[in-house]
Amino acid sequence: MTDRAAPAPLPPILIEDMVRAALREDFGRAGDVTSAATIPAGARATATVNAREPGTICGLDFARAAFAGQGANLKLSALVADGARIAPGDPVLRIEGDARAIMGGERVALNFLCHLSGIASLTARFVEAVAGTGARITCTRKTTPGLRAAEKYAVRIGGGANHRFGLDDAILIKDNHIAVAGGVGPAVRAARAYAGHLMAVEVEVDTIAQLHEALEAGAPVILLDNFDVARLREAVAIAAGRAVLEASGGVTLESVRALAQTGVDVISSSRITMAAGTLDLGLDIEIA
Which of 42, 117, 125, 217 could make a disulfide contact with 279, Cβ separation 3.0–4.6 Å? Predict the structure, then answer.
């Protein structure tokens, strides 16, 4: 985590909706038949979610909701907080109570924890890679359908920032919009006329010529799509602070620091949501 204030938690209603859908999917038509067949009714147990590898934890509220959804009044004790850096063997969450209920919530809880922690962990690595440059790492709209709010929260937990959440909260003029609108300038001018005073306007450009056109049209934010390091430096010099500059396209952990050192303000990447692996966490259970 950076020294910025910790991100606000997601509203419970968003978490509950996502977790409820996942539990319905997992329980299917007959419920947990394995636990019903093998675990005596009323059996109690204690379980701990433990880290198997280092990383950044994210998704504890999702895990809590998964276990709370079992309706058995399980006792839950978070041993770390979202954003915590953990090492192999570190305990993350303890669950006590009805053994069948613990087993019923295990997979959904771990799915959210492992997935969101994976995103937070990879984001943190990108953020660390650009430390001291002034550039911010941000995600994109490339997210798992139905999980956008959760995945964007994980990016914030990892120290990154969020790009727009959907088609409705900011104007981002891309190449196809430009083609239909008749050019960068006409598209930017139309967008600025359409947008209210609180709506951001950004345009994507592919060339230095398009950058000049965007600046002349008064674009406040410009996305430099697949610019190499030399062209990014040139773009920063041309813009000279007249617009926020965002670098995007093909960003990797190996290339991101060089991109940041060109002086761009933002670096966006879909990798931190779409290519992040899961963080290896496991639930270890003992009979009470």
Answer: 117
Helices (H), the chain: 12-27, 33-38, 60-68, 99-129, 148-157, 175-181, 184-194, 208-216, 229-239, 256-260, 271-274
Residue of 52, 94, 107, 125 with catalytic role = 107
Beta bridge partners of 87: none
Q: Is 75 a catalytic residue?
A: no
Contact, 285 vs 45, CB < 8 A? yes
For residue 44, give the 3-state DSSP assignment: strand
Amino acid at 60: L
The residue annotated as part of the active site, out of 225, 228, 234, 280, is 225
pTM of the model: 0.95
What are 25-55's pLDDT values in tens digits? 999 999 999 999 999 999 999 999 999 999 9
The question of whether 26 is a catalytic residue gets the answer no
Q: Which position among 24, 44, 75, 174 bears the catalytic label?
A: 174
Domains, the chain, in order of start with CATH, read 12-127+276-287 (3.90.1170.20), 132-274 (3.20.20.70)
Per-chain mean pLDDT for the chain? 96
Closest CA to 267 of 283, 288, 244: 244
